[in-house]
Amino acid sequence: MTTPNATSPAPLPDGLSAELLPRHIAIIMDGNGRWAKAQNKPRMFGHERGALTTQRIVAESARLGIGYLTLYSFSIENWKRPPEEVDFLMELCRQRLEAELPMMMDNNVRFVHVGRREGLSQAVLDDLDRTIELTSKNTGLTLALAWNYGSRAEITAGIRRIAEQVKAGELAVDDITDQTLSDHLLTAGLPDPDLLIRTAGEMRLSNFLLWQISYAELWVTDVLWPQFTAEHLHGALRDYAGRHRRYGGL
After folding, report:
1. For residue 144, what are the β-bridge partners?
2. How far apart are the first and last CA of the chain?
3. Which of 118, 160, 214, 220 is deepest in the core (most CB within 10 A)?
4. CATH class for the domain made up of 20-149+192-241
5. What is the pTM of this model?
6. Is 32 among the residues known to form the active site?
7. Domain ranges in the chain?
């Protein structure tokens, strides 16, 4: 087994400084199907190319010293797609977890799963759990894979757990705060995203981290995910660095 790389982040590209980098980046990786269609290829070909982009962006985020990266990879709404596409995506997930494990170990990446376990096959769950366990001692970038994830369902489940604690007398209503709900979400233990990137030009959130991105900066590009490069990521980071985050103030 490769030992975790404990080296310092590499020099940053021009125009970037460590103190102005976001701690947590979330990405809606959109456009695999459209990219494949433009190449006269099946949608599955686009997903495969998109997976290669994912590997490059994870490695680059680790190199830059980003603390957390959450990738929206499979939503609970994606179950509505044709069964053959869903089966392909599940198998692709398993393949990429195995293929990218050496990269995660070499780059000191800790892997976590953000999403429902219900509905996933035991084979997928085993591969997710194995990757979580093998990278658990890594101390660099935390890679959160949003797989079988939906924000409304996440919030509803969190509220239900809080209600059960109140009913059982374990929690007083007056003690419920914003943090209480955050602690009952699938992302508990992760900081809220500072920057949300969406590819393929769509101006919507698609049921992704609706609670957590309340104060995130948004950056949307027309570039399709299979075409997204480290240079595009750098552009998003430069734009983020030039913004003044007011959090409702002046």
Report:
1. 70, 112
2. 51
3. 220
4. alpha beta
5. 0.94
6. no
7. 20-149+192-241
pLDDT in tens, 91-131: 999 999 999 999 999 999 999 999 999 999 999 999 999 99
What local confidence, expressed as pLDDT, does residue 250 receive? 66
How confident is the model at residue 24, as a pLDDT? 99
Question: Per the residue annotation, which of 30, 32, 148, 194 is the catalytic one?
Answer: 30
Active site residue 78: yes
Listing DSSP states for the chain in one string gives -PPPP-PPPPPPPTT--GGGS-SEEEEE---HHHHHHHTT--HHHHHHHHHHHHHHHHHHHHHHT-SEEEEEEEEGGGGGS-HHHHHHHHHHHHHHHHHHHHHHHHTT-EEEEES--TTS-HHHHHHHHHHHHHTTT--S-EEEEEEEE-HHHHHHHHHHHHHHHHHTTSS-GGG--HHHHHHTSTTTTSPPPSEEEE-TT--S-TTSSTTTTTT-EEEE-SS-GGG--HHHHHHHHHHHHT----TT--
Tokens coding 65: 């010293």
